[in-house]
Give the backbone structure.
Amino acid sequence: MSESILLTDSTDPAIAAGVALLEGWRVVVRAVAELPAASAETNVRAVLITTSDPVALRLAAESARARSTAVIVGCTDEVARRRAIELRAEEWVLLPATPQEIAARTWAAVARKSMNGSMANEKAEKAEYEQMLHDALTGLPTLPVVIERSRQLFKERGELVVLYLNFVRYSKIEEIYGWEKLDAVLETTASAVRDFLDDDDLRASRLMVSFSNDDDFIFFHVPARGVAAATDAEITEMVTRLQRHVAGQIEAVHGEDVAALFDIYVGRAHLYYNPKIRLERVIYRGIREAQNASRSLEERERARRVSDLKAAIRDRAVYVEYHPIVVSTSREIFGYEALARGTMRSLRSPEVMFDVAAEADLIWELSRLCRDRALEGMGTRLEAGQLLFLNVDPHDFSDPAFTEKGVTDPSRVVIEITERTAIKDYPKFRERLKAFREQGFRFAVDDAGSGYAGLGSIANLEPDFIKLDISLITGIDTNFIKQNLVQTMVRFADDHGAMVIAEGVERAEEFQAVQELGVHLVQGFFLHRPQPASSPLVHLETVAR
């Protein structure tokens, strides 16, 4: 009989010892980026994946499954275990594990993979049933489960309070950072909400996600016997404390920029039991009522933000943080990107600020203010030879007030084309760029590889700088596909006299990877945090080593 192979990305000796317990088996170790190709090798019957990179894990698991190879996920924490369940791996094992445990899990995984068709269908149905019970991402119970758990309490008490938690900016996190980041933020959110409830008067509430893998949550609160249901004022006060608690946890785990996109609008519905009406119907109607109420709050909040923005533009209440861009080989500061921030807390995030401006038709006015603020710091922020990177939306080129004139030294200004919307008329747009180029301005395509900033933009705009989106850089040290894409972009830039900037470098391993791939310039928290205009310049000797 031919030899069977367990393919793994781990050098843990317990894995080799466990495989040795299986007659006719041997272990083969490959880097995680090599697992998809290696799983095609003859006699590979199981793949044991231990990486914590969710993208690499998914790619390796999908490749193995396409070849009918059993998938085992090595987990070090609860998050990894939930990912294994979400991937529908045949088995998962908590590491570190004994050789006997690894051998048993491997044999079980192969046995499950070789089940006949009827058993496989039964397993799939069971997995779907389990998914109906609990959300694999957050671990929270789903709506059908909580309805059943609350049924008798609702009947006995006669009333039920439904709270709909609408996390309005979470879609923006996904757009900017990718779905893996939002998944991680949702895990943090669920954990923070559970912690909050443990210490709150509503700790008996039943929390759930609105739908599996969704980003909105629902509370069911059945008041305790003899206790009045929470009033609107009490709910508002609770939500304020909840928002502070969750935002603090998100900032601690994911940073200030992500936390700035966190916001909750809470709708409330007070339901009363009526034996003449089906209980499920009462609850679903209440959920819709609470959801609509949260959207009404969102609309009122949007109107308030528009008013805040108008006041900010009138009072010039915008400041600029300067984020260093460094040469990857020497870490010498090459220039600074100007990042606009609102002084009002409601407008702290530039994404929120420009979203509000778009809704209120104030994009030109806000863009003018942000450019003015950024250019004001050139004399004090930049040293000789350093460049200022200025974010500009394509719509700004239609603004009569945005011209190539008025900048003292255009050769030191790089206009970053930040495409919030698609460029529809490239010939006309290039004519506007030509006038700026003739004055000495240089151009960059921002967020290359994301949204509208694709290869078409690079080919049509012929930029001097190509800024790679953070979604391409995050986890690049363990992702072979991302490495290939970045290497291709660097080669293209070298051939056309441009420079590649990797933004969002947050780990030493990512920095080393982009260095080895030949990326010219680097930007990210691993090297520098953004600095407000009032702070002293960062000099080379202060750069993180």
Q: What stands out?
A: The longest helix spans residues 279-315. The chain has three domains: 4-133, 143-304, 316-542.
